[in-house]
Amino acid sequence: QICLSLVKLLFYLAHSPLGSIALLDFQPRQFVMVDGNLKVTDMDDASTEELSCKEDNDCTLDFPTKSFPLKCSMAGKCEGINEKKNLFNAYRYFFTYLLPHSAPPALQPLLSDILNATGDLRYGINETLRAFEKVLHLYKSGLYLQKRPLLLNDYISLQGFRTVEGEGHKCWPSYSHLGCLLSIHSAEEAAAICNSQLHCQSFIVTQHRTWTGRPLASFQSSWTDLVPDPNAVVYIKRSASSGERL
């Protein structure tokens, strides 16, 4: 969410009515999340000026660990230098820390492509935004899910119940530090996740949703303490419930 919102912001800056705008003091502390969108808190260090040049050798974009040769345009300006400066700063301050984590395994190669392409400045802001929107579409639609046997058949579902809240087994990534709370596309995906976890015996699907509209599921190592909850459904492994009375 943070990276996509940042890319949308940089897309606007690259195509603003004032021309391409560079954020000269590009640091995480210069941004804040407002209603799920990233905002710039200080525009004092923004500039629409692009570096003047006479030849391509005048257009080197330097960073502490990398340098990029750019083209000198017919108008005597280094082509796209503001856009590329913003994009590489987004890569080194945000993408490298946020993109490698939390995504479903099937989407991780696509995010790695974005990371590598922006780190080498092979993508401009237009290509980067399209790549992010493709990943978001796959994530929200569930099209990234691989065909597999119907694992949900191995579970008993109880509508209107949940387990008593408490510290359960932990997993990464989790929306709660007290247990294993993950976003899912469907109960079928949750069953696959539970099957992949050594201690998981049940999971609860709630009506709470993430910013993409995906429901949250809590994965549990037990299922015995059930309490009524009209807004939840608990799924229990048949193997775990065998011999017990529901």
Automatic annotation (TrEMBL):
Which residue ranges does the record assign to the FAM69 protein-kinase domain? Answer: 2-116
Signal peptide range in chain numbering:
1-22
Q: Please give the biological process terms from Gene Ontology that the record holds.
A: skeletal system development
List residues traversing the bilayer: none
Q: Does the keyword Cell cycle apply?
A: no
Q: Does the keyword Signal apply?
A: yes
GO molecular function terms listed in the Swiss-Prot or TrEMBL record: non-membrane spanning protein tyrosine kinase activity
Keywords linked to the UniProt accession: Kinase, Signal, Transferase
What is any one of the record's Gene Ontology cellular component terms?
extracellular region
Name of the featured protein? PKDCC kinase
The record lists the organism as Rhodinocichla rosea
